[in-house]
Design goal:
The complex is a heterodimer of chains A (563) and B (88). In chain A, 71% of the residues lie in helices and 3% in strands. Chain A has 563 residues and is mainly alpha-helical. Chain B is mainly alpha-helical. Chain B contains 2 helices and 1 strand, in the order ααβ. The chains are: A mainly alpha (563), B mainly alpha (88).
Chain lengths: 563, 88
C-alpha cells in the first residue's frame, strides 16, 4: 500500500461529516469546503486498480477499487459536495451538511467499491444519510415523508441484500462485475438497483420525499441516490435490454407528471426520474457510445439539476412559497437567480452550447447507430418533452408569467456563488466537452457540434417551445396534486389494513359471542372435573390402577409386535 | 406622448411582441436551414422536410393532451394528503 492509497475518499467525507458538528464559525465554513476538496485531491492521487484488498469470511473484498467509470462518478459526487456545501453554508440546521456529507461519502463509497458486499454496506449508509438530510428540514411534512422514504429504501436494501447473498452462494465470488439477469438472485440485485434509480412501480418515493427537504437539502438529495443507481447499473447490467423500456417509461412518466404538477420542486423531482430514464435507456442499449452517453449525462445532469434546485431553493428561502400558482414575476428582483435557473433549464433541455447537448445526444446517437428506430423516435419526442416540462415550464411559471407582486432580493453571496459556479460549468462543458469526454469509460468518437445536429436539435426544441406557448391556457397551474403510486402505501395500504383489522375484530367478537354458551358449558365441565371429588382429582382404587397398568403394558406389547 | 413607465423592459407589451416576432423568425430560419444543410438523416422518416420541427411540435401537443387526460382521472386538491401532517 503506497502513501497515495492510504486515504479512501469516501472515508475522508464520512469522518469529516462526523467531525463537522464540533466546529463553529469560520472554521466550520472552511471545513465544509475543505473536506470534499481534500477528498477530491485524494481521489485523483489514486492509481487505477483494486487498491484495498480484504478477506472476509471466504470472500475477497475490495473496498477501494478505481477505474475510469468509478473515478468519473466519485469526481462529480465530490464537485457536487463542494457546490452543495457552499450553497448550504447559511442553512440554520446544523445537522444538514454533516448528514449530506455522510450521504455523499457513502455514494462515493459505492462508486469506489470493487465488491458487492462493500456496495451493499455503503448503499445502506446512503439511505441513512439521505433520511437525515430530510429530517434536518424539521417540518412535519418532511418527517412524514422521511418515514415513507426510509421504508422504500430499506425494502430496496433487503431486496438487494437477498440478491447479493444469492449471488455469493451461486458464484462464491463477491467481485462487482457485469451480470446478466439470468437468475433469481441477479433479478433481485437488478430490482434493488432500479428502486434507487426511481424506476416504476415504486418511483413515487422520489417526488414524494425530495421536495419536502429544506431549500438546500433537496439540492443534495437530487444528486446522489439516483446517480449511484445509474453507476451500479452501468457496471452491473450494461446491455440489459429490458432497461431500454424501463428507461423510456421513466422518461414519459416524468414528463407527464411534471406537466401536471404545481409545486416547483416537485416538477424538478419528476424531471429527475425523466433524466435518469435517459441514462437507464442508454445502459439498456449498452454500446460503447451509449455507455459513454449515460455516464456523461449523469455527470452533466448532477450539475444542471443541482443548479435548477438551487434556483428553486433560493426562491423558496426568499419567499417561503413553493407552488407555481403563487409565484411569478420574480425576474424583477432576482435577476441572478433567474439567469442561473434559466441556464440550468437550457442545459436540461440539451440546448446547443450547454452540457446537456454534448451528453444526452450520445444516447440518442447510440439508438440511431443501433438502428433502433422506435427507441430513437421515443427519445426525440422525449427531448422535446424535456424542454416542455422543465426547460420552459419551470422558469416560466416561477420567474415570469403573471406578476405575483413578490419582490424578494437575490440570495446571499454563498448561495449566489454556488449558482454561478454550476451555471459556469453547464456552459463550459457545453462549449468545451473534451475534458468530460476524456473522463468517460470508453474512447469517445463523437462530435456533438455538426451543423446537422445543431439545426435538428434547435428545430425540435424551439417548436416544442412554440407548442408550450400555443397550449399555455391548458398548462395554467391549478392548486392540485396528481395521484402517484405512493397512493398505494399512503391510502390504499392503510385503508386495507384498517378494514381488514376491523373485519378481524368483528369476526373475533361474533365468533366469541356465538360460542359463548358452548364455551361456558365447556368451562364449567373443566372446572367441575378439577374440583375435589371431580374426575381429575378423586382418589382411585388400587384395582383400577393395576388394570390401567395392565392395559398400558398390553398396548406396549401390541406395538412391539407391530413394529 | 411619453410611453408609460414600466418596472422592467420585459413588462412592456411592445417588447414582448418584438420577442414573439424574433422567436417566429428564428423558428422559420431553423426550418429553412434544412434546404441548405445536409441534416444527415439516420432514418428514412427523418429525411422529410422539417421533420424535427413538426415532430417536436406534434409530440408536445400529444404529451400535453395525454397529461391532461390523465389529470382528469388522477388530479386531486393539494390538501388530499393533509391528514398525515403534510399540509404545507
Amino acid at each position: 500500500m503506497t502513501e497515495a492509497t492510504v486515504l479512501h475518499p469516501a472515508l475522508i467525507m464520512i469522518v469529516g461529516a462526523l467531525l463537522l458538528p464540533l466546529l463553529r464559525g469560520a472554521a466550520r465554513n472552511g471545513a465544509v469546503l475543505l473536506i470534499p476538496g481534500a477528498a477530491l485531491v485524494a481521489l485523483w492521487l489514486l492509481p487505477e486498480g483494486r487498491l484495498w484488498q480484504v478477506t472476509w469470511l471466504d470472500y475477497q473484498l475490495a473496498p477501494l477499487a478505481v477505474d475510469k467509470l468509478s473515478r468519473l462518478f466519485a469526481t462529480i459526487f465530490l464537485v457536487m459536495s463542494i457546490a452543495g456545501g457552499l450553497f448550504a453554508l447559511r442553512q440554520e440546521s446544523r445537522l444538514e451538511i454533516p448528514a449530506a456529507f455522510l450521504y455523499a461519502g457513502s455514494a462515493i463509497g459505492v462508486a469506489l467499491a470493487g465488491d458487492l458486499i462493500t456496495v451493499f454496506v455503503f448503499w445502506e449508509f446512503m439511505a441513512v444519510g439521505s433520511t437525515l438530510v430530510l429530517w434536518s428540514a424539521g417540518t412535519p411534512g418532511a418527517w412524514a415523508a422521511s418515514r415513507r422514504y426510509v421504508m422504500v429504501h430499506l425494502a430496496g436494501g433487503v431486496i438487494l441484500f437477498a440478491g447479493v447473498t444469492g449471488h455469493l452462494l451461486g458464484t462464491g465470488d463477491a467481485t462487482f462485475t457485469r451480470m446478466q439477469p439470468d437468475s433469481f438472485a441477479h433479478w433481485l440485485i437488478l430490482i434493488g438497483f432500479l428502486i434507487n434509480a426511481g424506476a416504476p412501480p415504486l418511483s413515487a418515493w422520489l417526488p414524494d420525499a425530495y421536495p419536502e427537504a429544506s431549500w438546500s437539502g433537496t439540492v443534495f438529495l437530487s444528486a446522489f441516490t439516483t446517480k449511484t443507481a445509474v453507476y451500479v447499473l452501468l457496471r452491473g447490467f450494461p446491455g440489459t435490454e429490458i432497461l431500454i423500456w424501463v428507461g423510456i417509461f421513466m422518461i414519459f412518466y416524468g414528463i407527464v407528471y411534471a406537466l401536471l404538477e404545481n409545486d416547483m420542486r416537485r416538477i424538478l423531482a419528476y424531471s429527475i426520474v425523466n433524466q435518469v430514464g435517459f441514462m437507464v435507456t442508454g445502459i439498456g442499449i449498452g454500446t460503447e457510445m451509449a455507455i459513454n452517453g449515460a455516464a456523461a449525462h449523469a455527470f452533466a445532469h448532477i450539475i444542471y439539476k443541482a443548479l435548477l434546485l438551487m434556483s428553486a431553493g433560493a426562491v423558496l428561502a426568499a419567499t417561503g412559497r413553493r407552488k407555481c400558482s403563487e409565484l411569478g414575476g420574480l425576474f424583477h428582483s432576482m435577476p441572478l437567480t433567474t439567469i442561473c435557473g434559466t441556464i440550468g433549464a437550457l442545459a436540461i433541455s440539451s440546448f446547443p452550447l450547454t452540457s446537456g447537448f454534448v451528453s444526452k445526444s450520445m444516447v440518442t446517437q447510440a439508438a440511431a447507430d443501433g438502428h433502433l428506430q422506435a427507441v430513437w423516435l421515443f427519445l426525440a419526442a422525449a427531448s422535446a418533452g424535456v424542454f416542455l416540462h422543465a426547460g420552459i415550464k419551470f422558469p416560466w411559471f416561477v420567474f415570469f408569467q403573471k406578476d405575483s407582486g413578490l419582490r424578494p432580493a437575490d440570495p446571499p453571496a454563498s448561495m449566489r456563488w454556488a449558482m454561478i459556479f454550476f451555471a459556469f460549468l453547464c456552459i463550459a462543458l457545453g462549449i468545451w466537452p473534451e475534458p468530460l469526454y476524456a473522463l468517460l469509460p470508453y474512447p469517445v468518437d463523437y462530435a456533438p457540434y455538426t451543423a446537422a445536429h445543431v439545426i435538428t436539435q434547435l428545430q425540435l426544441l424551439l417548436f416544442s417551445g412554440l407548442a408550450f406557448f400555443v397550449m399555455l391556457d391548458y398548462l395554467k397551474r391549478t392548486p392540485t396534486i396528481t395521484l402517484d403510486t405512493d397512493w398505494t402505501w399512503r391510502v390504499a395500504g392503510p385503508t386495507i389494513a384498517r378494514v381488514a383489522g376491523n373485519f378481524w375484530l368483528g369476526l373475533r367478537d361474533g365468533v366469541g359471542r356465538s360460542l359463548a354458551s358452548q364455551g361456558a358449558a365447556l368451562e364449567a365441565a373443566v372446572v367441575r372435573s378439577r374440583q375435589p371429588g371431580g374426575l381429575m382429582q378423586r382418589s382411585w382404587q388400587t384395582g383400577w390402577m393395576a388394570l390401567g397398568v395392565l392395559v398400558m403394558l398390553l398396548g406396549y406389547l401390541g406395538f412391539y409386535y407391530l413394529g | 406622448m411619453t410611453p408609460p413607465a414600466y418596472e422592467h423592459w420585459l413588462d412592456d407589451p411592445r417588447n414582448v411582441r418584438k420577442l414573439w416576432r424574433g422567436f417566429l423568425v428564428i423558428l422559420a430560419l431553423t426550418v429553412i436551414a434544412g434546404f441548405f444543410v445536409d441534416l444527415h438523416p439516420h432514418f428514412q422518416i427523418e429525411s422529410w422536410f422539417g421533420f424535427n420541427a413538426a415532430y417536436g411540435f406534434i409530440t408536445c401537443l400529444l404529451m400535453i393532451v395525454g397529461a391532461k387526460a390523465l389529470g382528469v382521472l388522477l388530479k386531486r386538491p393539494d390538501s388530499f394528503y393533509a391528514e398525515d401532517g403534510r399540509d404545507d
